[in-house]
C-alpha cells in the first residue's frame, strides 16, 4: 500500500507568525507551568495544528511553553480549521466546562451568552439551572447543555427567568440549600403552577422554616414544599402536578 504525505511537520522560531484563535479558551497558568517544566526536561516533537491564517487550533499551551523557553515551534498547517475544531480537539483531551464555552462565545459577541453571564453573576445560581431558566425549561437540566455547547443557545424570556431567580434567591433566609439543583427545579415546578402563590409560601416558611430540609431529589422537595404550603389551612392545593400558568 502506497504511503501518502498530507501535512508535513514544520519547524520555526518565528513566534510572531502565530496567533490565538478568537473564542479559544485562555491558557491555564497551572497547566502551562507543568508543561513548561516537562518540556524543559525533554522537548518532544509534538506539533501543534494551525489553520491557513496561522491561528492555533491545537497546542496553544505548547506554543506558549516553547516561546517562553525560546525553543523551536513545531506545527502542521491545515486549511479550513476553525473554532469548532478547536472545541472538538480540546474535548478529547481536557473537557471544556461551561465557563470555557461561555467565555468563548462571549468573546465572539453572541448576545445570548453575554446575557447568560450577566444573569449568572446577578443571581449566583448554578450553570445548568441558569441555562434552564433562560431557556424557559422547568422540568430539569436535561440536554440543555448540548445546544449551549454548540453555540445554539437562545434565551426564551429574560424577564421570566429573572422573575424565577429572584424568588428562589428570596428563600435564602429560610433555607441555606436554596442553590441546590434539585431544589431549584422543584421551585421552578411550583413557580410555573398557576395555583401557586409565592407569598403564601413565604408566610408559611416564617413559622416552619425548620421543616425545609435537604432532600434527595426534585420530587421529594415538591412533596415537602407542598406540605409546608398547605400546613394548617383549609384551602389545600395540589402542587405535585404541573398546572402551567398561561403566558402573559
Question: Any chance you could write out the topology, listing elements then pairs?
Answer:
Elements: E1 10-12, E2 19-20, H1 29-41, E3 48-50, E4 55-58, H2 60-68, E5 73-77, H3 83-91, H4 98-107, H5 111-123, H6 127-135, H7 144-149, H8 158-169, H9 181-191, H10 198-208, H11 218-229
Parallel strand pairs: 2-4, 3-5
Antiparallel strand pairs: 1-5, 3-4
Outline type: elongated
Query: H/E order of the elements?
Result: EEHEEHEHHHHHHHHH
Tally of strands: 5
Distance between the termini: 68 Å
Give the radius of gyration: 25 Å
Helical content (DSSP H or I, runs of 4+): 40-55%
Q: Identify the quaternary structure here.
A: single chain
Number of H/I helices: 11
Let me know the average pLDDT: 87
- Sheet having the most strands: 5 strands, mixed
Q: What share of the residues does DSSP label as strand, in percent?
A: 5-15%
